[in-house]
Amino acid sequence: MAKVVIDGQQVEVREGITILWAARQIGKYIPTFCYYPWFPPQGNCRICQVEVKGIPKLQIACNIPVRDGMEIFTENERVIRARRAVMEFLLIHHPLDCPICDQSSECDLQDLAFRHGMAVGRYREAKRTFPKVDYGDKIAREMNRCIHCRRCIKLAEDYMGVEVIGALERGDKTEIGAYIDAIIDSEWSGNVIDICPVGALTDKKFRFSSRVWDLDQVNAYRPDCPHQCKVRLGIHRGKIQRVTARIYNGVMESMICDDCRFNHYNLEDWVLEV
Amino acid sequence: MIDFDYKNPEKIVFKNIDIPGMRYVANYRKKGGYETARTVIAEWKPDDVIEEVKKSGLRGRGGAGFLTGLKWSFIPKDSPLPKYLICNADESEPGTFKDREILRFDPHSLIEGMIIGAYAIGAHQGYIYIRGEFAQEANVVNDAIEEAYKEGVLGKSILKTNWDFDLHLYRGAGAYICGEETALIESLEGKRGHPRNKPPFPAVQGFNQSPTIVNNVETLAAVPYILKYGAQGYRKYGTEKSAGTKLFSVCGLIKKPGVYEVPMGISFKRFLYETCGGPLEGREFKAIIPGGSSVPLITREMAESEECTMDYEGFQKVGTMLGSGGVIVYDNSVCIVRALEILSRFYAHESCGQCTPCREGTGWLYKVLHRIENGLGHPDEIDLIVDIANNIDGETICPLGDAAAWPVQSAVKNFRSEFEYHITHHTCLPGTAKY
Ligand SMILES: Cc1cc2nc3c(=O)[nH]c(=O)nc-3n(C[C@H](O)[C@H](O)[C@H](O)COP(=O)(O)O)c2cc1C
Ligand code: SF4
Question: Which segments of B209-352 does DSSP mark as H helices, in order?
Answer without folding.
Answer: 217-235, 268-270, 300-303, 312-317, 336-350
